Amino acid sequence: MQRYVRLFGTPITLLVLIGILIFGARWGYKNVVAPAPPPPLVPCTNQNVGKALKVSQVTVKVYNGGTKAGLASTVAAQLRAVGFNVSKTGNTEVEVNQTQIIGADADNPEVKLVAGFFKGAQVKGDGRVDHSVEVLVGNKVTGFNRSAPTSIQVNNPTVCLPAPVATP
C-alpha cells in the first residue's frame, strides 16, 4: 500500500497544484481585464440659492445620441454661452431622436431651468441622488431657445445640487 502512495502520490499532488495554479491565473486574468467599476455617486448637497436658481449654479452633462458628429459639443457651447457649467460631453450608448432632459425629478428647479432652453424637449426624472442634469440630443434637435430665462424662482432658498467640484 505504501508503495502505491509513493508511486502515485507525487504525480497526483503535482496535478492538483497545477490545477490550482491554472485556476488562480484564470481568475487573476479575468479581474485584471475587467472594466473598473464606476465611481460612486456623491449625493447632492444643500446649497443656498436665495430666491432664484441661476444658470451659473447648475451643472449640466451633454450627450450626443444622434448620428451627427459634434452635436454634443455644439449644444454644450450654447449652454456655456448662457452661463451653465457644462461638466461633460460625450456620446450615449443608445440612439436618441428627440432632445431629452433628465434629472432627479421633472419638477426640480434645475431641470426646469435647463428644459426652458430646449423647445419641445422630453423631460424625465429618474430619481438620481446627485441631482445632476443631463441633456441628450439626437438627430431631431428641436432648437435652442436663447431667450429663455436665466433664472427660476424657488420656494425654498435651499436647493439640493451636485457638490461643487474643487479645483486644484
CATH class assignment of the largest domain: Alpha Beta
Strand content: 15-25%
- Biggest beta sheet attributes: 5 strands, mixed
Give the N-to-C terminal Cα separation: 73 Å
Helix content: 25-40%
Oligomer: single chain
CATH topology of the largest domain: Alpha-Beta Plaits
Q: If helices are DSSP runs of H or I spanning 4 or more residues, what is the number of helices? A: 3
Features:
168 residues; alpha/beta; 2 domains; five-stranded mixed sheet; two-stranded antiparallel ribbon; elongated; LytR cell envelope-related transcriptional attenuator; transmembrane helix; LytR/CpsA/Psr_C; transmembrane
Structure, explained:
The chain is of the alpha/beta class. The protein has 2 domains: 34 residues; 117 residues, Alpha-Beta Plaits, CATH 3.30.70.2390. Helix content is 30%, strand content 24%. The longest helix is centred in the first third of the chain and has 32 residues. It is elongated, with a radius of gyration of 26 Å. The model has no long low-confidence stretch (mean pLDDT 88).
SSE topology sketch:
Blueprint: H1 2-33, E1 45-48, E2 52-54, E3 59-64, H2 71-82, E4 85-91, E5 100-103, H3 109-115, E6 122-125, E7 133-137, E8 151-153, E9 158-161
Parallel strand pairs: 3-4, 3-7, 5-6
Antiparallel strand pairs: 1-9, 2-8, 5-7
Concise summary:
It holds the Pfam family LytR_C. This protein is of the alpha/beta class and 168 residues long.
